[in-house]
Design goal:
single chain, about 290 residues, mainly alpha, DNA polymerase, domain 1, two-stranded parallel sheet, 13 helices, about 5% strand, Endo/Exo/Phosphatase_dom_1, Helix-hairpin-helix domain-containing protein, RuvA_2-like
Length: about 290
């Protein structure tokens, strides 16, 4: 071991020189800055870039905001009113007014009924869409009844037969244009003999319930096509698949459920069948009977 720690004079000088070099290099690295020169920044280009980023951010924020489309304020629901920023009290005042079968015809009248603030009215009023005759009356200052829509409902005899109506007849209903009138006629003609009941309008894609209600005010099924009523508790799978919205898989599950229940007690029990189209129950019930 002694031979490993015994150095000659020249070896000791070499060791001291090595230590000195190490210390000198460490000091050099510590005190001398070897970093490159400071980068030059084009401040005008940077400001332009930051402005562009900010504008893109604002556009993204604006696009994420809920969009408001033109609407008739007479048909504001609880959900619609809340999404527009109306309070529960303001919505309730509007609904109470409409329950009296009265109609709002101007922006000013809307504020008088709901008592919304001026600031909220300024935001909503540009999206109000009243019937054409109301707009014309307001523009021309032509006197009209305050509630021209407040009319006596038509009797069944006064209504037009939907199975004989033309596309032009349907377009007279507010909310029915060329697109929906043609879809209604196309659906009607797909059944030999036409519709059975007004509820079949639910099969017109995109047709809203409130528009169907408007159609029902002027139209009725006066000449329904003749159909065979199927007894649910005796029907075979082949009979069930002849009904709208029932395929073989659903028909099999209906029969299976019928056996487990030892017969259905009501047509509404069909809703408990797996994968049953609950939203089409009213249409399916047109073809069924319990006995």
């Amino acid at each position: 071991m002694k031979s490993h720690f015994t150095f000659s004079k020249s070896q000791r000088n070499g060791i001291f020189l090595l230590i000195f070099l190490i210390v000198a290099l460490q000091c050099l690295c510590f005190y001398v800055d070897f970093s490159s020169e400071e980068l030059s920044i084009n401040k005008s280009a940077l400001a332009k870039y930051e402005k562009e980023i900010d504008s893109l951010r604002l556009i993204e924020i604006e696009e994420r905001k809920p969009k408001i489309y033109p609407f008739n304020p007479n048909y504001i629901t609880d959900y619609k009113g809340a999404s527009l920023g109306m309070s529960n009290e303001e919505i309730d005042r509007l609904l109470a007014f409409r329950k009296q079968n009265k109609w709002i015809n101007t922006t000013k009248q809307f504020q008088e009924v709901t008592k919304i603030s001026d600031s909220l009215l300024d935001v909503l009023s540009p999206y109000f869409k009243f019937p054409d005759w109301v707009v014309e009356a307001n523009q021309n200052s032509t006197p009209k009844p305050n509630y021209a829509f407040n009319k006596k409902p038509k009797t069944f005899a006064e209504k037009q037969d939907l199975n004989k109506a033309t596309a032009q007849d349907l377009q007279k209903v507010n909310g029915i244009g060329e697109y929906y009138s043609e879809r209604i006629i196309k659906l009607r003609n797909s059944f030999p003999g036409g519709f059975i009941d007004m509820v079949q309008l639910q099969d017109v894609y995109g047709l809203k319930p409130e528009v169907i209600e408007k159609i029902s005010e002027d139209f009725a099924i006066k000449t329904p096509r003749t159909i065979k009523i199927i007894i649910l508790n005796k029907a075979t799978i082949d009979e069930l698949v002849t009904i709208q919205h029932i395929d073989y898989n659903l028909a099999f599950r209906i029969v299976e459920q019928r056996q487990l229940r030892e017969g259905f007690k009501s047509l509404d029990e069909l809703k408990k069948v797996k994968d049953f189209p609950v939203n089409k129950i009213d249409i399916i019930k047109l073809y069924l009977s319990l006995d």
